[in-house]
Amino acid sequence: MTRPKSMKTMKAIRLHAFGGPEVLRHEDAPVPELKPGEVLVRVRAAGINPPDWYLREGYKALPADWRPAVPLPVIPGSDVSGVVEAVAAGVHGFAVGDEVFGMVRFPSYGESAAYAEYVAAPASDLALKPAGIDHVHAAAAPMAALTAWQFLVELGHDHANPLQPHRHRPVPLEGKKVLVNGAAGGVGHLALQLAKWKGAHVVAVASGGQAAFLREMGADAFIDYTQGAPEEAEAARDLDLVLDTLGGATASRFLRTLKRGGALFPVFPLGFSGAEEAAERGVVVSATQVRSNGQQLASLGRLLEAGTLRVAIDSSFALADAQQAHARAARGHIRGKIVLTVG
Prior knowledge:
By secondary structure, the chain is an alpha/beta fold. Helix content is 21%, strand content 25%. It folds into 2 domains: 9-143 and 292-341, Medium-chain alcohol dehydrogenases, catalytic domain (Quinone Oxidoreductase, Chain A, domain 1); 160-285, NAD(P)-binding Rossmann-like Domain (Rossmann fold, 3-Layer(aba) Sandwich), CATH 3.40.50.
């Protein structure tokens, strides 16, 4: 089934050039046509994630020969929550009127197109929205929650790892001492809760103003990085696992906090330079690329429905105010997630 005949255009955020938040334009765009196996979702909210501003900037943080070609204009965004408007041939498990959420076609480069009134999504990328949470909280969850799940609980796919030669393997968490760096952010506050759910003792690293919030999320110990190097803190000794949601060149500082046989998982592994030290210390360093997975999202949805997992909202903006939302993201120190509301 294609789009209803009455719908030809929709409002969307598009960029016609790469740059800062000012390149995000609220304008008319064609309503997407459905392909077999896809669902047309009337978007109620769209979550904002770092890959959205990487795309907006033209992936300038990547080496030049790694930058994908992105045809312009392009609609950014991958995380949505909304209502099924139409279903194509080959779709099972979803019907018109169902409330759904998901991370659409990720990883892809400019094909997800979630900052819009309508998005065409592979049915396999979606799950039924938990009835107990609203569209704003549901849209905030997919990428951050799936990242935490695939790093910590279950990878869930057999795709070749673009980040390293070996497959990422989560480690058992029950009874283990786990540190989450960047614990107040989107991935961090959900990873903290998943680690607690799995029976870990969790040490949260963030700025001092986040202490009460992270204790509420379940942190057993808290390190204020503004008061000294977190890797030197007493609470960071003899760790079994570090999930560094910031990653990059600074992730290697946590190698000294880990027991022999422990693991360091940098969510952003580019720039990591501690491979030799990790080998000397007997520490496994591993990362993965988060991928869309409706089945895993359904499992996360059950945790959200039960209140075992909670999503914090830093702020929300109307779709037309996407520039302001990206400007908020650029200021940093985000508690939870930023969301666009649609319609």
